[in-house]
Amino acid sequence: MPDFSLPTRVTVSEAGAIVSHALEALRAGDPSQPWTVDASALQTFDSACLALLLELRRHAASRSLQVLGAPPRLAHLATAYGLDFALVDIAVPATHA
Questions:
Q1: Closest by CA position to 68, among listed 24, 28, 38, 45
Q2: C-alpha 8, offset from chain centre
Q3: Which Pfam families does the UniProt record give (predicted)?
Q4: Which regions of 39-97 does DSSP assign to beta strands (E)?
């Protein structure tokens, strides 16, 4: 079970409120375990979503941040912005043929 689930929309308009809720969840979690964020519901997002994930990664400190179920476009956006090195634990679901 993920520690936090992203909503369907994460743009610059929503990111501030979402990061506040996410940080509350991070503080409530077990610091000895990786911190998981479920991105499977994510449909509409912009670069603010990447900024949010980087902020969460920074606050997770020694815990690893794993993003589960990310849409492929999120991983492509991270690569386009040169942030793929910082968000290496983005798990993109396999596509079904």
A1: 38
A2: 12
A3: STAS_2
A4: 44-45, 65-68
> At a CB cut-off of 8 Å and minimum separation 6, what does 67 contact?
36, 37, 39, 53, 74, 87, 89, 90, 91
* pLDDT value of residue 94: 56
Query: Residue 30's beta-bridge partner residues?
Result: none
Give helix 72-80 / helix 47-60 axis angle, nearest 10°: 80
Q: Using an 8 Å Cβ cutoff, are 65 and 37 in contact?
A: yes
N residues, the chain:
97
Global pTM?
Answer: 0.83
Per-residue pLDDT reduced to its tens digit, 24-38: 998 888 888 888 899
∠39-45-51 over CA atoms, to 5°? 80
**Do 67 and 87 contact (CB within 8 A), yes or no?**
yes
